Here is the input.
Amino acid sequence: MKILVFCLLALTIAADKFDQFRAFDEDEFGRTLIDTLQMQMSTGEPIARFIEIMRNLETSIENEQKEDDKANNEYQNQCTEDIKVLQQESANLERRTVEIQSILDELEPLRSYKQGQADAKNAWKVETEKKLADLVKKRETEKAEFDKKVEEHDYATFVIETVRRMFSDKNQSFLQMNNESQWQKVRDYFINASEQAKKFEIKKSYSKMFNVFAEIANAAQTEDFQNSPTVSRIVNLCDLMLKQIEDSKALETKAEQKRLNMFMLEKGNFDKDLTTLNNALAQLTAAILSLDNRIQDQKRDLSDYNARLAAKNKQSEDRGNECREKAYNYQLTREKREQKRQLVSQIIGAFSANQRDFAEYVKLRGQAGDFRGKNFQILGNPTED
Here is the structure.
């Protein structure tokens, strides 16, 4: 039946007009409009009422588009303003990060320079301390050597003075000995002294000197001790040796004092250098610590500002995407609404120009059962898909 009716339509209505009407019918919104016309015809209302409804619908679509255009313009203007504000905030944050980085670019090389100074002064301090330690060690060695010389000089003095007293003091127990016993005692005393002197570390020559005295005493054993010329010879030698030992000791003492004075001078210079170095190191350490604190503060600030900048850029990007999505959806809605407005306009034009053919098409269409039963409420929301 439906096929027959459409065949009759095709025969009754010109082909170009039929194709136009059928094209309207193939569009979902166009079919709704034709359903509305068919309902109008079925209720017996004047056809002019349909034209009025279509014109009102067209006006409504245009008004809705104007309102949508206005809302979109306001929204996009707000987007522009929001993005401008966000970009300015990002620029401010980025400028601050550049400022902080600039501060770091000054502080970090300064810190490295100060550390280099501290390292150099530390190395100088270590070297100075080593030189001072070497100087003290050298002085201790010199002092020990001097003390050993004094000890050896004193021993030699003691030995010679002891023998000197044997001859000069009227020691009754010594004088009561026979000649051989007296000279033997002197000889043995010098031999024992020579053996002790062999242990000397410095004045080893004293051992030979004591041996000479022992040989003299040994050669004089046949002489009368009381009247022996060897006694005077030994006494004179003892006096001479005591004078030489005293002079040698005086020279050693003078040299020791000179070494001590030189040591005190050099040590004083090292102490001054170390005091200066320690003061400089204390100042450098404090400066480095201050720089470390400032650098850490700046790095924390830089990290914070970088995080805030990233968040602000993300916010700006999200806002831009939101605005672009809104603009895209607006454009799609506008295109769809414009298509509907054009379709309404075309239907009005086609119906006005070909009212009889259009009415015949709608009538036969209804007989073919092509009416979907839609009502006028659909026209109240022409933008609904």
Remarks:
- Confidence is low (pLDDT under 50) at residues 1-12, 171-176, 371-385.
- Residues 229-353 form the longest helix (125 residues).
- The two ends are 31 Å apart (CA to CA).
- The chain has nine helices and no strands.
